[in-house]
Specification:
Layout lengths: L38 H11 L4 H6 L8 E2 L10 H7 L7 H25 L7 H25 L21 H18 L11 H13 L1 H5 L6 H14 L22 E5 L21 H4 L10 E2 L1 H6 L10 E2 L1 E2 L9 E3 L5 E3 L1 E2 L19 E2 L20 E5 H15 L4 H12 L14 H11 L6 H8 L23 H6 L10
Antiparallel strand pairs: 1-3, 2-10, 4-9, 5-8, 6-7
Length: 503
């Protein structure tokens, strides 16, 4: 059978892959592409474009954590997403199923590209093998997220598929070991430095540190890897490739491809075939007078009140959220009709006013997320998507991971405290109070403020043991909820799969 391949120009024509063993749809085969070395860069663009699923992880799986809620507002947004916030999801939950599908698509496209290189006349070409390492890193990231969110999943590393022998389910530990071994090997292949949008060896080391951060979660009690996290993050710091931006807003600006804080990102380009950053769509309905005609998004996502109240009032990171009375670009009050039919100034309340915040929130309840609008709107864009790239891994996290690792080894470690304060104050450019000591609670809360709405909060809460706690508009939940269920459609289509406990 001909292996189907993909290049970026045809990304729009791909259908979603619902299984980890499904080959991405395309009319291209190894007989019509990759005849020239230059074509492999296009193919790699196609692999990287699949990272667009990160927005689903951030804005849908993210609502399961304690920093975000996507409530129903009247008839709007009513469906599976409220169950994600309440930790009452089932295997039929479509929002979680879409995440599994998107991550499976990354694996399928990456496998096709990697196989294409192996079967081409450029299999031993040094430049092409670096591109192959790039694709392996993307695939490792997808498997990391599958393991982190869903636990035991099939481990498929080839585009070949036998319908009579569906892939068997691998254990969480097996997926962990695969991701670990891939990243260790990739780090020796990737270059010391590279251009933006490609991956250097320190991207692999940063992702490996992120994997090790929750090693005890994945491998069981007693399997911590704090010294490994400390060593890997030290290598990234000593590389000199990255730095902590003095201005927090620049990390998320429309031209953040210039930021040396970003280590790995979803490259967004609303004019071309790359993913669009549609994060604004979830938060800024009714704000065309403020942001322009493109602000025709949805009005769903909001910050949980406890998150907003956790910031000091002068913390520049609060610019990532919009609340209070709203004005247009000229400073005039934005007038709108509220849920009671009264026309008045648009006013987003931090604390929800509805009696049922999850299932029937007022349309003006909750601070809105505007992390990608803090520095204004710039560049050429379409009506739908921002060109701001979405960071997946950034240098601030390297510093915070090292701080946590050093703290776990020695809770009085002076460097750990200094690193947290370095991130918190942005090298002295954020006028907040410095910490004089660290505790687990301080570390978790500070990670929450720094990385709010960036897709890592669930991962952090599980590590710190707060995942099952009650928080804003959510009751205490069962321990088995640390894992999402394998989507029922996957169970039905592959007899080798077993559901996670509790479901």
């Amino acid at each position: 059978m001909k292996k189907l391949l993909i290049i970026s120009a045809f990304m729009a024509g791909i259908t979603s892959c619902t299984n980890l063993d499904v080959v991405p749809d395309s009319l291209l085969t190894n007989e019509t592409v990759y005849l020239e070395k230059s074509e492999f860069l296009n193919g790699l663009s196609g692999v990287n474009a699949t990272l667009g699923i990160w927005s689903e992880v951030v804005y849908k799986a993210g609502t399961s954590a304690d920093d975000m809620i996507l409530p129903a507002r009247g008839a709007d947004w009513k469906g599976d997403i409220q169950a994600v916030h309440m930790h009452t999801w089932t295997p039929e939950n479509g929002e979680l199923g879409a995440i599994y599908t998107g991550l499976s698509k990354i694996v399928a496209v990456s496998n096709s590209y990697i196989d294409a290189i192996a079967s081409s006349k450029f299999a031993d070409d040094a430049d092409v093998n670096v591109m192959k390492a790039d694709a392996r890193l993307v695939r490792a990231f997808a498997y990391f997220l599958l393991m982190d969110n869903f636990g035991n999943v099939p481990l498929v590393t080839t585009s070949a598929y036998d319908s009579q022998n569906p892939p068997k389910q691998a254990s969480r530990e097996e997926i962990f070991r695969f991701v670990e071994s891939e990243l260790l090997e990739i780090a020796d292949i990737l270059p010391e430095k590279t251009e933006y949008g490609r991956y250097d060896r320190y991207a692999a080391k940063t992702l490996l540190a992120k994997l090790y951060l929750n090693a005890e979660v994945y491998l069981g009690a007693g399997n911590t890897k704090w010294q490994d996290v400390a060593d890997l993050t030290e290598e990234v710091i000593n590389s000199g490739n990255y730095l902590l931006e003095d201005d927090f807003t620049k990390v998320f600006a429309w031209d953040n491809y210039n930021s040396r804080e970003i280590i790995m990102a979803v490259i967004c380009d609303s004019q071309n075939t790359y993913p669009e950053n549609i994060s604004y769509l979830f938060s800024i309905n009714d704000l065309r007078a403020k942001y322009g005609s493109f602000a025709a998004g949805w009005g769903g996502s909001a910050a949980l009140p406890s998150l907003i109240h956790s910031y000091e009032s002068n913390d520049v990171r609060l610019k990532a959220f919009l609340y209070g009375p709203q004005v247009d670009a000229d400073g005039n009050a934005i007038m709108a009709t509220d849920d009671k039919g009264v026309t008045r100034q648009l006013d987003y309340s931090i604390d929800f006013t509805s009696a049922d915040p999850v299932n029937n929130a007022d349309h003006w309840d909750g601070a809105r997320g505007v992390k990608y609008l803090m520095d204004g709107i710039g560049g050429t864009m379409t009506e739908r998507g921002l060109n701001n790239d979405m960071p997946i891994l950034r240098y601030a996290d390297v510093l915070m991971m090292r701080a946590e690792a050093l703290f776990r080894i020695n809770s009085s470690d002076a460097e750990a405290l200094n690193l947290v304060n370095q991130v918190r104050t942005r090298n002295g450019h954020n006028p907040v109070t410095e910490f004089t000591q660290l505790t687990e609670e301080i570390l978790l809360d500070e990670r929450g403020r720094e990385f709010a709405w960036e897709g890592w909060r669930r991962n952090d809460q599980i590590r710190f043991g707060t995942w099952g706690n009650a928080w804003d508009y959510k009751e205490k939940s069962e321990d088995f909820r640390k894992l999402f269920p394998i989507p029922q459609v996957q169970i039905d289509s592959n007899p080798e799969l077993k559901q996670n406990p509790g479901y």
